[in-house]
Amino acid sequence: MNYLSYYFVAINVINFFLFTIDKQKAKRKQWRIPESLLFLTSLVGGSLGGILSMNIMKHKTRKTSFKVGMPILMIVNFLCYLYLSKLL
After folding, report:
1. What distance in Å separates the CA atoms of residue 82 and residue 76, rounded to the nearest whole number?
2. Is pTM beyond 0.70 here?
3. Per-residue pLDDT of the chain (88 residues; tens, 9 = 90+)
C-alpha cells in the first residue's frame, strides 16, 4: 500500500469515529461536533467512513444535506483517489 492509500484509510476511520462520537453526544444532549467539520472531513477523503457511520449509527440519515451530500462527496473522493494514484 502506498501513502495515498494510508491517508484515505486513516481519514475514513477518523470520520467514522467523528460521526459516531457526534451521535453519542446527541444522545446525551452534550456539545456536538459541528456539521461543517463532518462535511470538511468528508470532503478531504473521509466520505466512506461518514456514510458507514451514518448507516450503522442511524445518525444524520434524515438530513437532506447529508443524504445527498455524502454520496456526492464519496464520488468526488473516489475520482480524486483515482486521479492522484495515477500521478503518484
Report:
1. 10
2. yes
3. 799 999 999 999 999 999 999 999 999 999 999 999 999 999 999 999 999 999 999 999 999 999 999 999 999 999 999 999 998 7
